[in-house]
UniProtKB/TrEMBL annotation:
One GO CC term, this protein: cytoplasm
Family: Belongs to the FAX family.
Organism: Strigomonas culicis
Domain Thioredoxin-like fold as annotated: residue spans: 14-98
Name the record gives this protein: Glutathione S-transferase
Domain Metaxin glutathione S-transferase: 160-222
Comp. bias (Basic and acidic residues): 252-262
Length: 270
């Protein structure tokens, strides 16, 4: 996935893995791709480590921790690890769906701006993809308990989850003390877009809860300084290096979707 205008990657799990790699001082190379055929799960992130290909952010972090003798979590107690696992589950299964539901279904202008900037495509082209993905997302939500919640209900759940993260941080620099752990990577990946999306955060009380939280904002700044001190420069360099939309395969695919949508509209009118 490409860099996001608001975070290290357009994909939260990719941001999570890259944050871990940086905190663990493991050398790596980012390959931006939309081709998922190399992934064992057909999804990103996945890594190629020697002759091994590992997918899923949790499995990747577990593998790298063992392979490179990473000691980010060495001082954690059993209770700390249980709490960290619960926080990551809460992020994966409760909070991430809220972000996507708000951005792609309730306020598609947010997702349109995000994709337009990330892929360097016109807004109307990005909007076509947003509409397509929103339909897919709604079909997935209908078969999950989360999808039965009203907007007010799932935003309230998100706010409660934010409060739980704030309580865990408290007056500490990071989740469990003076040093970041692997669990901080998941929290950072979820929340860092909110403090960089500026006026787009105003569309939702859930977004604003993060953007205006002194505890979360200061926490995210500390992690950015620790893991991504070059984040702004990194995003600028990535954007400058990206090829023109008309010459990219992504641009061709998105323009093809645009023409297909126009043709379908013409058939419906006829």
């Amino acid at each position: 996935m490409p860099r996001s205008p608001w975070s290290p990657s357009l994909s939260g799990p990719c941001s999570k893995v890259e944050t871990f790699l940086r905190l663990a001082n493991i050398e790596y190379e980012v390959v931006e791709t939309r081709d998922m055929y190399g992934s064992p799960t057909g999804m990103v992130p996945f890594i190629v480590h020697g002759e091994q290909v590992i997918a899923d952010s949790r499995r990747i972090i577990e593998f790298l921790t063992t392979e490179h003798h990473v000691k980010l979590d060495r001082d954690l107690t059993s209770l700390d690890r249980a709490t960290g696992t619960a926080l990551v589950d809460m992020i994966d299964y409760n909070m991430n769906p809220t972000f996507f539901r708000l951005a792609f279904i309730e306020h598609p202008a947010v997702a349109t701006a995000l994709l337009s900037k990330a892929f360097h495509v016109p807004s109307f082209v990005a909007r076509l993809f947003v509409c397509s993905f929103a339909g897919y997302l709604q079909s997935r939500l209908r078969i999950a308990p989360f999808g039965a919640l009203t907007r007010a209900q799932y935003e309230n759940e998100f706010l409660r989850d934010c409060e739980a993260v704030e309580q865990q941080i408290g007056d500490k620099p990071f989740l469990f003390g003076d040093e970041p752990t692997s669990y901080d990577c998941a929290v950072y990946a979820l929340f860092v877009p909110f403090i960089n999306m500026k006026s787009y955060a105003e569309v939702s009380e859930a977004y604003m809860a993060v953007a205006q939280s002194p505890i979360l904002v200061e926490y995210l700044h500390r992690l950015t300084e620790r893991a991504f001190p070059d984040l702004e420069e990194l995003l600028d360099m990535t954007n400058a290096a990206r090829s023109e939309v008309a010459e990219s395969s992504l641009g061709e695919e998105l323009h093809a979707e645009e023409h297909e949508a126009e043709a379908q509209e013409e058939q419906e009118v006829a």
